[in-house]
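Holo model, iron/sulfur cluster. Inputs:
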Amino acid sequence: MAGTTIWVLGDQLDPAGPAFDGHRRGEARILMVESDHAIRRLPFNRERRVLVIGAMRRFAEHLRADGWDVDHRTAATLAAGVLAHAQEHEPDRVVVAHPTSRSGLALIRRLARALPVPVEVRDPVGFITRPGELGEMLGTRQPRMATFYREMRLRLGLMVEADGSPVGGQWSFDQENRKPPPKSHDLGAPPLWLPAADDPLDVTLRAEFAGLPETGAGGERVMAATSAEAEAALDRFVTARLEGFGPHQDAMMNDDWAMSHAFLSGPLNLGLISPRRVADRAAEALDDGMPIASVEGFVRQVIGWREYVWGWYWRRPWRTANELGAEAPVPAALLGAPTRMRCVQVAMNGVEARGYTHHIQRLMVLGTLMLQRGTEPWRAMQWFRSAHVDASTWVMAPNVLGMALFADGGQMMSKPYAASGAYIKRMSNHCRSCPYNPAKATGENACPFTTLYWSFLDRHRERLARNPRMSLSLRNLDRRDDIAEIRLEAEVVGARLDTGDI
Ligand SMILES: Cc1cc2nc3c(=O)[nH]c(=O)nc-3n(C[C@H](O)[C@H](O)[C@H](O)COP(=O)(O)OP(=O)(O)OC[C@H]3O[C@@H](n4cnc5c(N)ncnc54)[C@H](O)[C@@H]3O)c2cc1C
Ligand code: SF4
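Output:
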């Protein structure tokens, strides 16, 4: 059999994906390549390799059991794997879904020139919109998430009345969904779906990849690695945990690493479940009486933020983004040094144990710390890549560089996510068990976040003054009479963050 080769990349694990369209078992062969270079080159969270390679191997097995002829091979690089496959099997053509990164696209173009047969690139797997579509949808309008999200709801007819108005009377219930954590020990959400702790393939993979450059102590996979597992995780989330997601989606707690989050980013990013399916399933819960604020809050993440970020990845180059001229290293506490900062400790426990922190920890603890310290954006990006199991370039670039570090100078977000310890105090129970005082910017036990917040505003005052949304913060800065002390304290805090003595 020559026929077509359907080349499936590691984040395109959907047997109903565009590359499969029009092909039948027996007439097409599936190619999957495990690239040694991709697996070994960079430090990853230990559980990321377990999740991604495990998902690929399970997918190949699933296809075989379903009657497909699968060539699942290991090779030094992706390109070497594809070329060796082509030499061995001599396909008439190669079909592949659009990759999720610019480097992936460049590789496919190079291969298309090197191969003697046509290479057809189809729509991507795992997204509702195509690369470039964000621009088409918004035209000359200033790209803002709220506008994009409304258009997505209308386009999908999701939670929209017959007259085009939003179900529940408003497009966003964000104002109702920013509750601080309860006074209790933890949120009390029903447990999330988890795979069997002794899953044999996970155990094998942990042993196979031992010794590679890695972060985290591993040993706990918290995300689905097959479509069936993803369905189970989604079902558990919607039936048991979604209700609590809404009000507490921005809260953080010392003793609750999962809160009410969905743990679906991994399977979504691997193509194991589609964003449309996830959003539809959540919307169906309205019929069972699920509060609209919770459903809308979640749907906005999946078809709003996720697709918006995907669109932004393709809108500009990110590699060199550094509008604030940030040059500092990644804080030592994120690289293994112990820290007394409770909020950072709790987030780092999540990285260590399972390669997972939730959104507000990523944005307002890890991200804000690096923004205000002035960490060089690409180093921050590399750190995020090494820390989390769901790391993918397309999602990290806009989130880390655009949203958290303001390295695009405000193209994507209208203002930087700078914040003092007061924000973390309001939205978590961390500060109560922290030796630092979130109200203090200088002096004994001053909170590093608070010192760095004022110093950040002070350092970037000129640029921020052009932004009307920063005027209140800058007026508050002007009212401070201790800015000279803050500058000195910020120098000390910066040095202590670098050396890990904080
Ligand atoms: C600095 C920073 C780094 C991030 N790095 C990653 C990353 O490497 N991989 C990744 O998938 N997400 C990343 N995110 C987005 C978001 O934090 C994670 O998707 C989310 O925490 C994953 O956990 P969950 O599935 O339990 O999400 P939930 O809180 O339950 O949210 C549900 C789903 O909404 C989607 N979502 C929500 N917010 C975003 C967003 N801003 N961008 C994209 N999707 C979103 C995700 O698919 C997520 O699974 C990052 C955000 C920030 C601020
Ligand atoms: S006091 Fe400051 S460092 Fe400590 S937990 Fe609160 S915000 Fe974090």
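Residues 332-375+411-499 form a domain with the Arc Repressor Mutant, subunit A fold (CATH 1.10.10.1710). The longest helix spans residues 292-315.
Archived with the compound record.
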